[in-house]
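User: Could you check the structure of this?
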Amino acid sequence: MSACRRYSLVIRDRFSGVERGVTINLRAAIPAGLTVLVLPVLMGLGARWSVTPELQQLRAANSALLVENSNYRAATGELTTQIQSLEGVIDELGARPALDPAQLSAMQKLPALIRSKASGGASNSVGKTVSLTSMLATSLTSPDDTFGVLRDLLQALESRLTNVRRDVERQEALAAATPSIWPAHGWLSGTFGGRPDPITGEPGFHQGLDISAERGRPVFATADGRVESASYSGDFGNLVVLRHDFGLSTRYGHLSGFTVRPGQKVQRGDVIGFVGSTGRATGAHLHYEILASGRLINPLQLLTRPAVP
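Assistant: Sure, the predicted structure tokens are below.
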């Protein structure tokens, strides 16, 4: 076994000349030196290992925030689209002209069966809106809940506005189909109901109105519709029949001529023929009838506006 090497380190004070010596055991010095060198490295590694879980947690949290932020952007974009859709429906409803009061009055005098055809069904969107309103106060435990409730609420409002728009459109369609203007310029010479026959004098039932006017005066469509027939028809003479929506139809008899043909679309105020005395008539006049679901009704109750100028 070899002897352990020792080294002497001499330290001399240059001013006083005093010398001091230190003997170093190499075997003991090397581990001590290595310890001094390695200890900081080990401490650094230990510190890094101790913060690694925290770094992983931070990275996971950052990833979750990025996903959440992306989801919020998507949800915000969806809500924006829904809001724009609602604004479009509201603007469209606001731009629609109000129905003429005289036209509304005529519509209100239609048989209940006809009016019911233009009425929309009951919607449950109001109840849904109420339930969502209560959810706003009780279920908003996270931003996701908030976005979800707002999304459902906007969908309910959009559904409600869609129903309102459909109801408005059907009311407008009913207004267009309601015969509300006088079909010719002239004077009333025969009313709806019982009266003596103008030729035989016997008691009878008059199915419409007689409007006396000069031969050749224009006859107007009293509502939007389609020409069902335009031909000669027995006692009616030259007869035009218009078919309107919601089960309404009108007849125009004793015409001297036609300006329309079967299948043609017409609008309220269009000229469809001319006053005459064809068929069973004692003079130039227009015979005018209104039928609702195939049943005759008194035209006077719907004629709220004069014929077009």
